Amino acid sequence: MALPQLKNDVPKYEMTVPSTGEKVKYRPFLVKEQKVLLVAFESQDNRQILNSMLDCLSSCVPDVKLTDLATFDVDYMFTQVRSKSVGETSTVMHACKECNEENEVKIRLDEIKVQMSDSWKKVVDVEIDKNIIVELKYPSYRDVSYINMDEKTSDADMMMETIKACMKAVKTEDEYLLMKDEPKEEVERFINSLTNQQLEKITNFASNAPKLAHTQDYVCKKCKTENKIELSGLQDFF
Predict the structure, then answer these.
(1) Alpha-carbon distance 90 to 105, whole Å?
(2) Measured between alpha carbons, how far is 182 from 209 in angstroms, rounded to an integer?
(3) Counting Cβ atoms within 10 Å, is residue 180 exposed (0-12), middle (13-18) or buried (19+)?
(4) Does 3 score more than 90 pLDDT?
């Protein structure tokens, strides 16, 4: 006699993608996907963790093309799927500001939001000079995947790669040049030709990107001092 076939792979929950406002259906991780995530996290390899997260999300949110979404969209979606998979809370450790005692702080994942201003735009034009405009976008994890995540990567190289990931196109009076179609050497030559003031316009865009954020108060278990914990970015919540 054959074992019954479970229908747990059918999406039954709904969430809203932050950058698009689109409502999408999703399901929790299954055991097979949870195993993949655990193996990846145990490896402590950033690229393996990223790939496993994207693979699992693709299975749980089938009607969304993750490679087209910004990293903060995917981070938010991951917290929502995880909340329905292994519990709606996550425990993080935080040292008391007064006595330095480590406290376990429970965070409700369904209360985590993407912090974004009312005036934010998916694509922003930055004027480099009167004849050149750089079109900037918030990078997707497909863009980020090309960045060397090795601990030996210098801050300068990381900054260069982040800038490239944010640059969608360069516009002149006569041309619209997509950066993904340009040779790597040409892109680097263009970035290296910027002044510090021009570069700062691009880095400001990258550093002010929407992100997962949450603030929570707690009382230290040892000295009873009131503390505030501020979390930002996916890695802070797990």
Answers:
(1) 8
(2) 25
(3) exposed
(4) no
Torsion of CA 191, 196, 199, 203, to 10 degrees: 130
**What are the start-end ranges of the H helices in the chain?**
31-43, 46-60, 71-86, 141-144, 155-166, 184-192, 196-207
pLDDT at 235: 76
Which tokens sit at 80? Answer: 């929502």
- More confident position, 97 or 41: 97
Distances (CA, A) of 212 to 6, 161, 173, 175: 34, 22, 38, 36
What gap in Å lies between CA 184 and CA 190, rounded to an integer? 10
Burial of 78 (0-12, 13-18, 19+ CB in 10 A): buried
Calpha distance 23→191 (Å, rounded): 38
